[in-house]
Design goal:
68 residues, mainly alpha, 2 helices
């Protein structure tokens, strides 16, 4: 793709193709914004620390699905 060309002439496309192209472009913009937000996202320190509980009950996976 030529980097110097910043505009695409969508008038050569049908109206339906233009809508699909714009829809796809909106999808890419949203995906890019989400990725940028995730890169800069830092979770609070408490997220990385284990929960302190008095006791817990160990449950086998089979027991969880036995009642379904």
């Amino acid at each position: 793709m030529r980097a110097a060309k910043q505009f695409i002439d969508v008038s050569v496309l049908t109206a339906e193709a233009q809508r699909e192209l714009l829809d796809f472009f909106d999808f890419l913009k949203a995906k890019s914004r989400r990725a940028r937000r995730r890169r800069g996202e830092v979770l609070p320190q408490a997220f990385y620390e284990p929960l302190k509980v008095d006791s817990y009950v160990k449950v086998a996976r089979e027991d969880i699905y036995a009642e379904i």
